[in-house]
């Protein structure tokens, strides 16, 4: 798995998580940045992999990686958006 990966969940009852996931996808789509979204609710091994990359056994989506390199969570993504450094955050440059 190479490139930007957004770990998310389609089965979250948490509205904040749903909105965060939608915002990340909207911004990446708007900037025409290719990414893969991985739904951790579909396969347990995807959730395990996300938590291994993040380094937190209790990490919740959304989490963003570039391949096996952890980029950050939603809060870090928002900071990158504010600072207009999404490509730096995603380790694309």
TrEMBL record:
**One CC-aspect GO term:** cytoplasm
Which Gene3D superfamilies does the record associate with it? Glutaredoxin
Q: Which PROSITE patterns match?
A: GLUTAREDOXIN_2
Q: Which InterPro entries match?
A: Glut_rich_SH3-bd, SH3BGR, Thioredoxin-like_sf
Q: Which positions, given as ranges, span the membrane? A: none
Q: Per its UniProt entry, which superkingdom is the organism in?
A: Eukaryota
Extract the signal peptide range.
none
Query: What family is reported?
Result: Belongs to the SH3BGR family.
Q: What is this protein called?
A: SH3 domain-binding glutamic acid-rich-like protein
State the organism of origin. Strongylocentrotus purpuratus (Purple sea urchin)
What does UniProt list as this organism's lineage? Eukaryota, Metazoa, Echinodermata, Eleutherozoa, Echinozoa
């Amino acid at each position: 798995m190479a490139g930007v990966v957004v770990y998310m969940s389609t089965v979250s009852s948490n509205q904040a998580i749903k909105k965060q996931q939608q915002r990340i996808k909207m911004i990446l789509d708007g900037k025409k940045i290719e990414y893969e979204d991985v739904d951790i609710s579909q396969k347990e091994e995807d959730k395990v992999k996300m938590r291994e990359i993040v380094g937190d056994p209790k990490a919740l989506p959304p989490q963003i990686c570039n391949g096996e390199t952890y980029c950050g969570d939603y809060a870090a993504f928002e900071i990158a958006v504010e600072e207009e450094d999404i490509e730096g955050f995603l380790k694309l440059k």
